[in-house]
Specification:
Structural class: alpha+beta
Number of helices: 3
Number of strands: 7
Shape: extended
Largest sheet: 3 strands, antiparallel
Radius of gyration: 18 Å
């Protein structure tokens, strides 16, 4: 790869177009809406600890899906916002609304794919 090729490849102005182009060959991985179970594990002394938590997150009365993670320290992470950690699932839902404003609201009827 030449320096010019590299400069072109990492240009932030191309990110949106590159994402759109990649969707043609690699459509979005959609997760069904509904409950999400997270499992946290730890080993303490001679003991194995397992905490299973089930989340059903709804926005405007519609369940959302996706990869949801809870860290052992209790932070919540979601695949749709890969570089963020949230102190609560409510904080995460607020950020999803801010990040994807066209995807939420009572005027949007996305059916089972919401």
């Amino acid at each position: 790869m030449t320096e010019l090729d590299f400069t072109y490849a990492v240009d932030p102005g191309r990110l949106g177009a590159a994402v759109q182009d990649s969707l043609v060959e690699n459509p979005l991985h959609v997760h069904p809406p509904g409950p999400v179970e997270t499992v946290r594990t730890d080993r303490y002394g001679e003991h194995d600890i397992s905490v299973r938590t089930t989340y059903l997150i709804e926005i405007d009365g519609r369940p959302i899906g996706g990869h949801l993670f809870v860290t052992n320290s209790g932070d919540v992470q979601v695949h749709a916002l890969p570089n963020y950690s949230f102190a609560s699932a409510i904080d995460m839902a607020r950020q999803l609304i801010d990040a994807f404003p066209d995807g939420f609201g009572p005027e949007h009827d996305h059916g089972e794919d919401h």
